[in-house]
Amino acid sequence: MNATVAVQTLYNVRQSLRVMKENYHMSWREIALENICKGVSIGSLCRIYHGFEPGNKIRKQLGIVELLPAEACVKCGKVHTKNTCPDAPKRAHKYHYVTIDGHDYRVTKAVKEYIDQLEGASK
How many domains does one find in the chain? Predict the structure, then answer.
């Protein structure tokens, strides 16, 4: 048996509240008696209408997916959406420099070793 459950988003709930309040000129008391708002206080509905993020208890009553806790980063204490911390120290690059005719040039390790071999052979 395959049961499907209708899940609303917070955006949909806000849109419904906006339509009931602005288009149908319903009072908060009348809105609270509607099926989608059963069990939610008038004050909470008003706060959601004005942009408040409801807690999991109210989300459950409205049929909205509950928020899950996320682990904070051990380096900076923030929650990241990517797998890397932007505040973490970056990996140090090891650059190799060669001086030719009084000018410093940044080169790869292989080029540095090759030039060192040439200088060692010429000495």
Answer: 2
Q: Which residue do the tokens 């040439």 mark?
A: 118
Q: Name which of 56, 51, 61, 57 is nearest 17 in CA terms.
A: 51
- Three-state DSSP class for residue 85: coil
- Provide the domain limits for residue 38: 10-62
What CA–CA distances, in Å, run from 67 to 34, 56, 57, 92, 116? 24, 6, 10, 38, 60
Provide the whole-model pTM: 0.56
Question: What is the residue-wise DSSP string for 9-78?
Answer: -HHHHHHHHHIIIIIS---HHHHHTSGGGTT--HHHHHHHHTT----HHHHHHHTBPPP---PPPTTTS-
Q: What's the average pLDDT block by block, 10 residues per block, for the chain (123 residues)?
A: 64 92 93 89 94 92 87 84 81 78 84 83 69
